[in-house]
Amino acid sequence: MRLLLAxxxxxxxxxxxxxxxxxxxxxxxxxYVDPTRASQAAHLxxxxxxxxxxxxxxxxxxVAFHAWGLGLKAEARAALRKEALAHPRYQKLVAALLAxxxxxxxxx
Amino acid sequence: MRRxxxxxxxxxxxxxxxxxxxxxxxxxxLEGPAPGLVLCAPAVDHMxxxxxxxxLDALLFPLVSSRGYSSVPVELSQRLLExxxxxxxxxxxxxxxxxxxxxxxxxxxxxxxxxxxxxHAGGKPDRYEFELRWSLVDTADGxxxxxxxxxxxxxxxxxxxxRGPVASDEPGVxxxxxxxxxxxxxxxxxxxxxxxxxxxxxxxxxRMRR
Lengths: 108, 210
Description:
heterodimer; A: mainly alpha; B: 210 residues; alpha/beta; seven-stranded mixed sheet; 7 strands; 25% strand; flat
């Protein structure tokens, strides 16, 4: 029993590390090669949860792009506004994207 | 007395050694103001080498960001470029398209990765003859403010050509306009282009974040 517990203590963190060790490019690559809802959702999940990518200017744009692609419109808009607040350099781009998305919605 | 002479001699020797050491590569700023917002355009040759082009694209955003630039993720960049008429079949970015990117989205410069050549060399599966060009283009007038070309055969000596201010975190990179020769190594195509992409972006002058 102790041996089993000891093995679990080693294996669980290793498995957790391996499952989280996908890089940005690997995650994006998976969606590029096989652009499905599943691969897009997986990449969005990676963008939102991977600590190595937090606070990189522009990261919110990628979140917004993939959230929009999955139909999560409120989440996409929130990610854009957050990006514009955190990094004012993106304000013009964010305003243009919000306007464009609004036009697309009203055209439907 | 002997100890004193020894110390003086050792000091003189270390001074001579220091003066003969080549200076570390200097990271130079770009000529003129550095672009603030950089769009990462996808490599234009998705049809000819899809896996390779995707690897080049996926690396662009994190690498350009790591040099201090505010960048746009490549998946969004592609959609923005399409709004000004760009496609993989018509990838030219002339002044009219660049101006629209600047006026509509506030993009200061576009980083282009052009996979000019990528073919098997010598019939071996892990050898490729390649030519890759990176250019940073100002959206105000279409001027190339930095460019980098690399060509050769993987596993053999490779040529590098740099135009614009040189900046590198790597030792051994010389002055502007020089030509360098090194071995890019062999391996899976995606691994090789990933090494090339990382090496190229290391030569993009850093931008100080404000």
